[in-house]
Amino acid sequence: MSPPAPASDGDAGAVPRGPIASLLAEWIFEKRVPAGVGFLRALGTALLLLLLVQAATGVLLALCYVPSPDHAYDSIRYIDEDLAAHVGGRAVAVGKLLRGLHHWGSSAIVVLALLHLARVYFTGAYKRPRALLWVVGVAIFGVLLGFGFTGYLLPWDMKAFWATDVGLSIVATVPKIGPVLADLLRGGPELGAPTLTRMFALHVLALPAALVPLAMLHLLLVHKLGITPPGARVGEESSREPNDEPNKAIVKSEPFFPDHVFRELAVAAVVLLAVLALAWWLGPPLEAPADRDAKGYDPRPEWYFLGLFQLLKLEWFRGERVVLATTWIPAGLSLIAILLPWLDRSRERAPGRRPIAVAAGIVLLASIGGFTIWGAKSSKGNHSRPPPRVPVGDGSYVPPSSPPFPPPEPPPSQEQPAVNAGNAAARHDPARAELLTSGEALMRSYECTTCHLFRGKGDDNGAGGPELTKVGKEHDAAWFELYLLDPKKMKPDVEMPSAKDLGMSDADRRTLANWIRALAEE
Amino acid sequence: MLRRQLLTAAVAAIGGAIAGGLGLLGGAFVKATARWPVRSAKKWAAICTLADLKGDAPFATSFSFRRLEGWYVETVTRQVYVTRDGDGRPVVHSRRCTHLGCPVTWRATTGLFHCACHGGMFDAQGRVTEGPPPRGLDVLESRIAGEMVEVAEA
Question: Which of A7, A134, A244, B147 is the 20 to 30 A CA-CA neighbour of A53?
Fold first, then answer.
């Protein structure tokens, strides 16, 4: 890609340029930026590049992700553990690497966005004529935090579940609208299946739909208004055309390409390398599957919410004052951020001439940073581990879901062999096949898989109950009949409801006892 | 001008490295998603007994097994016909027509497998006798275990 001849070459005006060439010239190759913009003013483009990486990795992850509690965790596990590429005889976990990039990329984006925001604040770049540019930037920051929060629930592990639960409870403390807002975000009174689907929809549809136009407007405004010349007071630069002659008289300029593009790409490359290193060595975290009845699990939010988290732990914010920490401080800071260009009307931009603004900024940054570090240090939280994976196709008998294929046309007499039922083992003992079918139906009706695993699967990935196909080996049917009547009597240490608790009839109890024995004989 | 050339080269190199690296990783990821993970050894399913194969007509039966489709455990049922080959060994044929996958049905009147879709026909040994199918019926890997005929789950 060779740059078009610069306009200063003299004869450039002779040949009319096509629309794409002139667009490229205007936006890249003939664009000029104020001299001395340096690496500090390259953060925005690095942020944009990282967002594009998030979009690309996000689309790929969406190929394999199911936003439903019954398969979300399994699909994440599949991405982490089953997707490998073979490079020179060595298996590289590309799924894990890609999810790692997406996970750590989100943190890097928050860091870059904060640095970008701080740079704009301390260099006074939010002042006229760039007030709208600043407001759009603040809105983008809000959308980015929204991405972080909605993406957090998607792996559906313990940390995802509990951090989101706490986050939504914080939303619920907002006066008046809080409870309604929290129910809307959750899709119900408690965090559950609708919450996961809705967070996914927000994360991949609604928030991108908000971010794309905001980011485009932001870019367009940056292009139209130009980068703030370092140190220039308000009114000392041309407000319309940064490349205009009068502007050049005041502010020296340098080419955007390749000088500034190099700085932007260099910052992006360094950040991406750091993200890649974190993804490679630390990987994306994954804990045990989400469990709403978990005891002793100590949830922790992502680091960029730790400051708020720590604030809420202060004694002073207990009781009614909690609203201050959950609502009025964040809302106040947001409002100040949005109105900043109108609150601070001084014409000075150089940090040295704005002692109050700079001091306020430092105090704010230091307190947010301090609370974040404090929160990180005082709360280690605890972690749970993913359970071992269940092998599939362990040779156990699978009852046919329907009779073997029905003939496509009504069989004329003696033309069709008798249609044979199911797997041979069951076909040769119809009574046994009947027992296996009716027993399983009963088991489903009493919802045994709420706690138990059945053929490796349970509603909650095994809330502690043993595998039903295995338990039958230990005792005979008569024993199981008594056990189902009152489990605690037969085994004092078990946590299993009795037949009375479940409303189980004696006939059902007998069928289930025989069924459990039959399962063990498979 | 040398500075400009160096910077342009650096921009091209960094941009190319980022785009290329992401492209490679993305390509490898997509390629890995095109296969299902295998988390268990090969399993055999019993489909009939040797006594079922006395008659001349192919024996219709089916078997079900669970397999991992990416992250999802699915129960799959396969419909098959079991016959004996010239040496009397059981052969398991898939019911899928090799033309476009419609199910074939054995007709005792013609002594052939008929495909309802495009008129494909196969003899009892699965060989094409008529119609568009490009090859004979697919044969599933099978073995004899005692009195049972078993097929490899796949």
Answer: A134
For position B113, what pLDDT does the model report? Answer: 92
Query: Can you give the pTM of this predicted structure?
Result: 0.76
Contacts within 8 Å (CB) and 24+ apart, B71-78? B71/A64, B71/A66, B71/A71, B71/A74, B71/A75, B71/A77, B71/A78, B71/A82, B72/A71, B72/A74, B73/A392, B73/A456, B73/A457, B75/A398, B75/A401, B77/A400, B77/A401, B77/A402, B77/A404, B78/B140, B78/B151
| pLDDT value for B144 | 92
Run of H or E including B91: strand B90-94
* Confidence grade of residue A402 (pLDDT, cut at 50, 70, 90): very low
Handedness of CA A441, A445, A446, A451 (dihedral sign): positive
CB contacts of B25 in chain A (<8 Å) are: 94, 97-98, 101
Please tell me the least confidently modeled range out of A87-96, A293-302, A360-369, A474-483: A293-302
CB A464 within 8 A of CB A472: no
| Cβ-based neighbours of B68, under 8 Å, separated by 6 or more | A392, A393, B36, B37, B38, B39, B74
Strands annotated E in A357-513: none
Q: Model confidence over B30-89: pLDDT tens digits?
A: 999 999 988 777 888 888 888 888 877 899 888 888 888 999 988 888 889 999 988 889
The answer to whether the beta carbons of residues A111 and A101 sit under 8 Å apart is no
Q: Which of A40-49, A200-209, A304-313, A461-470 has the lowest mean pLDDT?
A: A461-470
Going by pLDDT thresholds of 50, 70 and 90, the confidence category of residue A470 is: confident
Residue whose C-alpha is closest to residue A409's, from B118, B116, B152, B128:
B116
Measured between alpha carbons, how far is residue B108 from residues A301, B55, B84, B90 in Å? 69, 11, 16, 19
Band (pLDDT 50/70/90 cuts) for residue A139 is very high
Q: CB distance from A6 to chain B under 8 Å?
A: no
Token pair listed for A71: 């398969």
Q: Where are the domains of chain B?
A: 1-36, 44-152
- What residue type is B30 in one-letter code? V
Find the CB nearest B11 among A261, A272, A428. Answer: A261
Q: What's the Cα-to-Cα distance from A453 to each of A282, A388, B69, B114, rounded to whole Å?
A: 32, 14, 20, 44
Which chain B residues are within 8 Å of A407, Cβ to Cβ? 105
Q: Which of B10, B48, B64 sits opposite A398 (nearest CB)?
A: B64
| Cα-based angle A317, A321, A326 (whole degrees, multiple of 5) | 80
SS3 B146: coil
- Write down the ipTM of this complex: 0.85
Instruction: Say whether A424 and B153 touch across the interface (CB within 8 A).
Output: no
| Distance between CA atoms of residues A136 and A42, nearest Å | 18
CB A256 within 8 A of CB A226: no
For residue A208, what are its two tokens? 């991108």
Instruction: Name, in order, each residue with C-beta under 8 angstroms of A136's C-beta and a sequence gap of 6 or more.
Output: A214, A217, A218, A221
Q: What is the mean pLDDT of chain A?
A: 83
Written as six digits, the tokens of A259 are 């000088």
Q: pLDDT band at A414, cuts 50/70/90?
A: very low
Q: What's the rounded Cα separation, in Å, for the pair A286 and A295?
A: 18
Confidence band of A459 (pLDDT split at 50, 70, 90): low
CATH topology of domain B44-152: Rieske Iron-sulfur Protein (2.102.10)
pLDDT at A405: 46
What does the alpha-carbon distance between residue B128 and residue B98 come to, in Å, rounded to a whole number? Answer: 9
